[in-house]
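Crash report, auto-generated. Payload:
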Amino acid sequence: MKEEFRLAWRNLWRNRRRTVITAASVFFAVFFTVITRSLQLGSYDHMINNIIQSFTGHLQVQHIKYHDDPLIDNSFAYNDSLISAISAIEKVVSVTPHIESFTLASNGPQTKGVAVIGIDPAREKHFSDPEAKLVRYRITGEAVEGMRTGELPEKVLEKVEKNIGRSYSSAARIELELGLTDEEKNHCLSQILKYSEFKNGYLSPDDKGILLADKLAGFLRAGIGDSIILMGQGYHGVSATGIFPVRGIIKLPSPGLDSRLVIMTIPAAQQLFDADGKITSLVINLKDRSGRTITKARNKINALLPDTNTSARTWYELNEVLYQQMRGDSQSGKLMLLILYFIIFFGIFGTVLMMISERRREFGVLVAIGMRKGKLKRIVIIEMVMLGIIGLITGLLAGTPLITYFNHNPVIIKGDLGKMMEDWGYDAMMPTAPVGSYFYWQVVIVILMILLAAIYPLRKIGKLKETEALKS
Amino acid sequence: MKVLELKNVNKIYNSSEIKVHAVNNVTLDFEEAEFAAIVGPSGSGKTTLLNLIGGLDMPSSGEIIVGGTILSELKPSQLIDFRLHNIGFVFQSFNLIPVLTARENVELIMVLQKWPENKRNLRTIELLNAVGLGDRLNSRPARLSGGEQQRVAVARALASKPKFVLADEPTANLDSKSAATLLEIMVNLNREENVTFIFSTHDPRVVKMARRIIILEDGKIVSDEKQCQ
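Recovered output after restart:
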């Protein structure tokens, strides 16, 4: 076997330039595939996590009519014992009651249709955690003026000015979006935070106030302490009207939600919609998002539900359109990569054809002097696998640091493209997916491609006639 | 002792329209340590006969027996193993493996035969010294002259101590000086190693050195004579 590897390795480098070009084609195919796939999967993951963590959860218990007809009339009664029973199911992380409906929100001349969610402020910390999303920093014109009185370099001020009007829920986020260098971070971040600090508040368990999403607050021109009028339809057609003081402003990662969400406590929402003791959903978060975990949990939850008019729905049933869009996008991405690999395959196959035609006589000599065809086939296979593996390993090694870096430091899409993505309801951010199964698939695909390309030389060796090969 | 016997061997090529009788009812035998030349004009069937003797091709009829084994009765894989252990080949255009050094080319046969490394090393050095290339062990074929490459090929053919060596026009691509050196080496090895050498040739220098001359015309043996050196 050692001899076979030695011969294969030497053969590989007999035409150095051709080997380098072929290995480079595999390298680029693998490199671009892992980067593209990682960005694609990372974006999906980010989007799904945004939706799951901010709104739908992994599963939701709902009235069976609620999904098609999301009215407060299709709510159901719940109690703490049901929450306790569901919480005891394996891999359930949190169970959070929500009461959701739609109203008009008005402040002075500004009015907008909004989604209202009634939450349990304490339980919600284990799910969407709105407290962590409270706006803590906001770059305003006044804040920038304040910063000018300090000693901020012009370059940093320019970066800050470009972000006037934006709100941030953490120092890390402000640092990320401003794109500060390490030096700028060390010298300037504390001043930026000082001048952009935003005083905010959260809901107490029986609070009568509301939290407004940041973009919605901007639209309504409402700040902390202002009162918002909500008008809508309550349970069984009663009028739902109320005036609610703004306790806090939250920044939601999904721009779609950020421009239309109002949060209040469950008792306040039940009172607004005249739906005593009722909720519209129980949002359940699980330890992971695998299909197996979700299905298992759903079956167990359904078995626990006392009301036959309620059932558990998965996040992908709740976001069917988005889910199908992502699947379609993923499939078209795979198709593009398949085409790329198809092209690369012909590059490898071309090399194989040349190799066979150049070495036919040598194969004849080897078989004539006593090398079995099986051994010769093994040498050729090893040679081709080595060629593929050089491209594969270098491609994966070159892709890994980039993927790891952009997984921890997502690409923030700025400018018109970023705004356009936000308008479409997407977070203008592209993190990469960490190294995972898609990485191992490249190994399988390249090896399969090599083995497929090897069929031809193996058949040729199998059919080789020594006398004819020696004449060539 | 007979190392090789050919009994009524025929080789007929059937192309679409013409039937070519390349080897016509040849009966021959070779003793141990013979130094024989098969001579004949181009197209007389020398190479075909050598291919049949070497088990690279199968006769249309007749038997070729090497050390008691009838070649046509062997399966293809058995035939390859048989060649490995019993027959050495020297080709007209050297046919060394270009990615292996002189040493590795000679060693390859012994690697295939699974000889232990120390025994392999001794035999390789012994043979390459015998062909006068003891100082070129690590040179690849591209860095050797034609004569040197053919000497490596002779060392390779003898590596596994075969029953006989088949050399198809071994001097055809060599200048006269290299050809003379090669012939001298082969004569010496024939004596020292006690191995039968069978050449196909129309080189008069080879014919002059041969102790037996077989003349072939249109696939038939027209003369088979031994000559004193």
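Post-recovery validation: Chain A has two domains: 2-50+322-471, 57-318.
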